[in-house]
Design a protein that fits this description.
The protein has 13 helices and 12 strands. By secondary structure, it is of the alpha/beta class. The chain folds into 2 domains: 148 residues, Aspartate Aminotransferase, domain 1, CATH 3.90.1150; 236 residues, Aspartate Aminotransferase, domain 2 (3-Layer(aba) Sandwich), CATH 3.40.640. The strands form 3 sheets. Strands 1-9-8-5-4-2-3 form a 7-stranded mixed β-sheet, with helices on both faces. A 3-stranded antiparallel β-sheet has the order 10-11-12. Strand 2, helix 4 and strand 3 form a beta-alpha-beta unit. Helix 3 crosses helix 4, helix 9 crosses helix 13 and helix 12 crosses helix 13. It starts with 25 loop residues before the first helix and ends with a helix. The structure holds pyridoxal-5'-phosphate (PLP). Pyridoxal-5'-phosphate binds next to helix 3 and helix 4.
Amino acid sequence: MSELALKGGPPAVPEGMIKPWPWITEEDKQAIRQALEEATPWRYPFPQVTALEKEWAEFVGMKYCLATNSGTSALHLAVAAAQIGPGDEVLVPAFTFLASASCVLHSNGIPIFVDIDPRTCCIDPRKIEEQITDRTKAIVAVDIHGLPADYEEIHALARKHGLLVIEDGAQAHGAEYKGRPVGALGDLAGCSLNGSKNLSALGEGGLFTTNEQRHFELASRVRMFGEVVRPGEPRQYNAYIMGWNYRTDNLQAAFARSQLKRLPEMTAARVRNCNYLTEHLREMPGLEPPYVPPDRTHSYFFYVLRVKPERAGVDLPPAAFRDALIKVLRAEGVPVQRWQTVPVPGQSLFQFRDGYGKGCPWSCPYARPGIEYHPEDYPQAQRLIEEFLCLGHSGGGLGPPNGLDLMERYVAAFHKALGEHLDEVIKLAREEG
Ligand SMILES: Cc1ncc(COP(=O)(O)O)c(C=O)c1O
């Protein structure tokens, strides 16, 4: 039995073994070099951007795609194209990244939060109806960690109440729900191409998709300052509606196109790695691996374990035990981390409700008066945050070229911490808790 690395023993994961994400190949570099040649003079749209839009639309099976400069802007295009405006309410899961909700605020809409399903960590369809009011216009369903939400139930509720479904697929490219790919699961969708994501533009980027021409046309205007710009026709410099500059560029698009060619292969490698983790960590005392319902696939942007000390006979709050485990595992070379620290409605923006100054948009005369956010109204989101331990993002080693040799080392580190040295983890948690 070797000493914990925290106490000076040899780390379970040798230094330099984890390869960062995105995985950049010679093909990717060649694609960038070629795009660089075409990058001057500046023009709109750039050829690589148009090609990326065509290829992503084909990949997911949607009619229209617009590439943008972030996942947040792609989501805002969805909100704006859905004509969500002042006072309109949009349902959003209480556990997600801020942008799933702030995209609503960007159009002066009001996010209303819904608790999550404890097994999938996605919005809980059983809790949606109780939040619907006469102002509700849409539901943002987030494919959290890489797992698609419960779209059949969500669409049924949306149809019943005349709502649109906006898919936030920022974390889940490559996953499928009942055979349909992420990016095609809502009426409108936004995905991120941020450098940490399963499909990336290296730096920043996003992809908006829809099947509706009217949504596409509105989103095209919003992306380009509110103007209508037709390829081959002179620009009029006339804004029809409120718009932003959400354009992206040739180099980012070329990188994303090159990565897209390998997305199925890269997703399969992630799934192989994460299945190995689940197979070997399942029996570990105090850990619950991710749940994947049989009707969908997971693309593992995050591999999330829930820490359940009571199942290991340990009488400690989950967060204290989790924090000690993170310390021990990180010393072993396993880049485990926390993610969200409060449910989104617990963030200061929602506590103080002052988005643009003067309390806007909550103080807007179109908004329902008296909206407040209480994090304790979302117990499943709160509980997840206390138990949450994950691998993933750019440095987590889940994606290729990392393979089972690295996963084996991760599993060895978990065994070391929770098998051989459980008493020391408990002691550390008590000391620091
Ligand atoms: C669930 C979710 N939605 C939206 C976004 C926003 O994407 P971007 O960072 O590309 O703006 C992220 C990014 O982390 C995300 O995780």
